[in-house]
Amino acid sequence: MQVEASERTPARLTTRLVFLFYSRPVFRAWEIVCNHAARLIAHKERMRSVQCSRAWAELNRQRMAIQRELGRISSSHAHVCAQCGHCCKGTRERDAFLDRVIQNPHTEHIGARRRTGAMVGLHIAQAQGQLLHPDAPKAHGCCNELTCAGCRLPQTLRPMQCLAYFCGAAAKALSQQECEAGIRLLKQLLKLHWQAVRLAARSRWGRTRPD
Q1: Which terminus of the chain faces fewer neighbouring Cβ atoms within 10 Å, N or C?
Q2: Is 152 part of a structural domain of the chain?
Q3: Which domain holds residue 176?
Q4: Is residue 68 part of a domain?
Q5: pLDDT tens digits for the chain (211 residues)?
Q6: 2 inside domain
Q7: How many domains are contained in the chain?
Q8: CA 75, CA 97: separation in Å to the nearest integer?
Q9: Residue 162: which H helix or E strand, with range?
Q10: Residue 101 domain flag
Q11: CB count, 10 Å around CB of 139?
């Protein structure tokens, strides 16, 4: 059995490295490119048309399904994040343009960075009664949604980067099967970003009917 385990180690290591590659440099770079591209080409009024709103809703359904699965994987390393908390440090806003528009095409915050107000996901969680840890004190010097008991947002309403990013310590807590599933899910998330860019382009140059 020890021989078999040692033989599987290189495969596990390779899978983990590929997973980290998709989770960190690939996803982060692709997210930045797609968010800025979509923001620059989207037509503010037309992206809220009936056709575009339906398409955004479908992308949002896919996004939630992907993040729900990534959340299941994340449960394997929750103890690692609880001990560290580095990714949630700092009060900068973490919801990008596509996070806001996919969840709510009518959002007022369509700039590259949201300067005022709260995350769209927070408003949705409050309206639907899904807010987590409502009485827990806020974690000092961290994301506005992080409390001492954990994030206030359910996983399906968090910014995509919050579920897509894994550090080396977190990845070590994952099995090979979880890493393989993570690679598949991250590829789906990359594809979803591209679909969002195409939809933004359609709002600019395609035919849409105003609301």
Answers
A1: N
A2: yes
A3: 18-205
A4: yes
A5: 343 444 357 777 899 999 999 999 999 999 999 999 999 999 999 999 999 999 999 999 999 999 999 999 988 887 888 888 888 998 888 999 999 999 999 999 999 888 888 999 999 999 999 999 999 999 999 999 999 999 999 999 999 999 999 999 999 989 999 999 999 999 999 999 999 999 999 999 986 544 4
A6: no
A7: 1
A8: 27
A9: helix 160-164
A10: yes
A11: 18
What are the start-end ranges of the H helices in the chain?
A: 2-21, 27-41, 50-74, 78-84, 97-103, 120-127, 160-164, 168-172, 176-205
Q: Would you say 118 and 138 are in contact if contact means Cβ atoms under 8 Å apart? A: no
Q: CA 194 to CA 192: how far, in whole Å?
A: 5
**Residue pointed to by tokens 């806020």:** 138
5 Cβ contact list (under 8 Å, min separation 6)? none
The tokens for 123 are 């408003």
Please give the distance of CA 149 from its chain centroid, rounded to a whole number: 21
Instruction: Report which secondary-structure segment, H or E, holds 146.
Output: strand 146-147
Burial zone of 138 (CB within 10 Å; 0-12 exposed, 13-18 middle, 19+ buried): middle
Amino acid at 145: E
Amino acid at 130: Q
Q: Which residues on neighbouring strands pair with residue 45, listed in sequence order?
A: none
Pull the structure tokens for residue 83: 């001990």
| Contact by Cβ (8 Å): 35, 96 | yes
